[in-house]
Specification:
This protein is an alpha+beta fold. Helix content is 25%, strand content 21%. The protein is built from 10 helices and 12 strands. It is globular and about 60 Å long. The two termini are 16 Å apart. 48% of the residues are buried. The N terminus is likely disordered.
């Protein structure tokens, strides 16, 4: 059992370090979560993602521990690094009203999930414009909690991070610009991500969003041995985002005019992920590159949606057998839920 004083001491240390660049977002307000470090604005160029085993399932003090965690993180709101809190399925006992799709992330085709890099009771995401500040924030967090509480942690960055036509773009480790599939800032982002009242979710979860995190190791050395032309056909776009049928990056390609895949191969990533560009997958991506050295580099893939089955899971199933599969290996991550506006969700979800 985790003592409340341990949790409070850890989170209070995080808040007290505001002058050193620690987190600065009221994480219990989903409106700010969606418009702040995650969605709707230019993504922060640096991030750390930390999964903690906060409490044992059924722990009677879980609600109070979460209140202390949220209060401590929000207390540092004048600092330069922003924080977001998300909940894992393991926080919810059978009798508690959990988000109906929140569960352990399953292994999809080709995944080799490492238990030490997968899941967690809570996910703390710290992001900012300076890598040194994010690293300081992360160090304070990790040093403040008992070693056994830390489940996994990873830091990332977004090369060539920028806004184009209202969309947050970056260059991935395969040298391709990504993010064109996201909607521009505004109403469509909320429509894709925020849980609605008609979804059969617990009332406390309305306004929140499902977050999927995937640690995807990339075979960059193998990839770089291919010609650019072969890489382009595997992805289905030019490196700068232009479509292979000549359409500009910010317009829709005419896949219907290419039924045999002569221009854009049928097993290319973009064609499988979103075969009907007029009806894009109902999710918003926000991914970061990582490099742990010794050839271990890739993506911290992250996406947000109001419905896991219609969002991430439908895309992931379509991607089975894609040409890019041999260059990727998913080793960890998890399903999480970013809670909704206001602190009332704690009492409603974790009432004694």
């Amino acid at each position: 059992m985790v003592r409340r004083r341990v949790v409070l001491a850890a989170t209070a240390s995080l808040a007290a370090a505001g002058g050193a660049g620690v987190a600065a977002l009221r994480v219990d307000e989903v409106a700010q979560s969606l418009r702040g470090p995650l969605l709707g604005v230019k993504a922060d160029p640096y991030v750390s993602v930390t999964a903690l085993d906060l409490l044992t399932v059924g722990e009677p003090q879980i609600g109070q521990a979460l209140r202390e965690l949220v209060s401590a993180m929000a207390a540092a709101e004048r600092a330069t690094v922003r924080a977001t809190l998300a909940l894992g399925h393991s926080l919810f006992a059978v009798s508690r009203p959990r988000p109906r799709q929140l569960r352990a992330m399953p292994a999809f085709a080709g995944d080799v999930l490492d238990p030490l890099q997968t899941g967690g009771d809570v996910l703390v995401e710290l992001s900012g414009h300076r890598g040194a500040d994010v690293r300081t924030s992360t160090r304070v967090l990790i040093e403040a909690v008992p070693k056994w509480m830390l489940r996994w942690q990873l830091q990332g960055h977004r090369p060539d991070n920028r806004i184009h036509e209202g969309k947050s773009l970056a260059r991935n480790p395969f040298h391709f610009t990504e993010g064109f599939g996201n909607p521009p800032t505004g109403r469509e982002i909320t429509e894709r991500t925020a849980v609605r009242t008609d979804q059969g979710e617990p009332t406390w979860a309305v306004g929140g969003t499902y977050q999927v995190v995937r640690i995807v190791r990339l075979a960059t050395e193998l990839w770089d041995k291919d010609t650019v032309e072969e890489q382009v056909r595997i992805i289905g776009r030019q490196r700068d985002g232009r479509w292979l049928d000549g359409a500009p990056a910010d317009e829709d390609p005419n896949f219907a005019a290419d039924p045999q895949g002569r221009l854009t191969p049928l097993d290319s990533h973009v064609r499988l992920a979103a075969p009907d560009r007029r009806n894009p997958p109902p999710l918003v991506r926000r991914s970061y590159s990582y490099d742990r050295g010794n050839g271990d580099n890739g993506l911290i893939f992250s996406c947000f949606q109001r419905d896991l089955a219609k969002g991430f899971e439908s895309v992931q199933k379509r991607l089975e057998g894609e040409a890019m599969a041999k260059y990727m290996l998913t080793t960890g991550g998890g399903y999480f839920f970013v809670p909704p506006l206001g602190g009332a969700w704690i009492d409603k979800a974790f009432r004694q």
